Amino acid sequence: MLTTTFSTQLTALYEQRARFTPIPRKNSAFQQMATPAQKFVLMRHNAEHYFLRPSPGCSEMPALQGNFIFVVLVSEPGTVYCGKILDMLTHTVDMEPFYIDGHTSLSNNQAVLFAGEMHFVNAALTSWSNRSGHYLPPSHLRTNLLPHIRLLLPEYLYNRIDFSSQGSLSSGGALSSVSSWQSRGSSYSSFSSFEEPGI
To answer: Which residues lie closer than 8 Å to 14 by C-beta, 6 or more apart?
Structure first.
């Protein structure tokens, strides 16, 4: 039998899911689908130490260092899927088998609740953003993220990408699409007051 507290929490969760705003793909440039060995689930031990969970049947993983991209699928709102993108600052030959083209490599062209990029130093998340050339996720749609995903991607590490001032997009992959975009640190202190007209 459900307790009153659990029933209230469950109702709130269903109400939040009903308010989700799916983000469709906006760039039609082709990206190769990631193999199971290139697609990971983001996890964390604590605020200073994150780790990757490999796909079933896979065991090899890249070091959690440098830039990774992520998506949260509409069909799986409680999971952050991520993959490694080419990052010349942390590139090593042993990382090459893990590189993917971009966000639709992870999403298989499905709509997402959010997509972006994350930066890690020694398995610690140092920043994350809405940087995605294929989805251009409006920054205010961080409200799509469930509470435990907000713990994985804390607001104080968020850097907003302003797509409206960047002109036309490149038709290339994730890196060429977003390489010239500028990020701005977020001044938001909570998820309750997202007001970003024009995005």
So the answer is: none
* Bridge-based pairing state of the strands 49-54 and 66-73: unpaired
Q: What is the pTM of this model?
A: 0.76
Whether residue 99 contacts residue 89, with contact meaning beta carbons closer than 8 Å, is answered with: no
Longest dimension (CA), the chain: 55
As given in the structure block, the two tokens for residue 99 are 């590189």
Domain borders along the chain are 9-174
Report the residue count for the chain. Answer: 199
Torsions phi, psi for 110 (to 5 deg):
-75, 160
How do residues 103-138 score in pLDDT, each as one tens digit?
Answer: 999 999 999 999 999 999 999 999 999 999 999 999
Q: Whole-angstrom Cα distance, residue 54 to residue 68? A: 14
CA atoms of 144 and 8, how far apart (whole Å): 19
Asked if 74 and 111 touch (Cβ cutoff 8 Å), the reply is yes
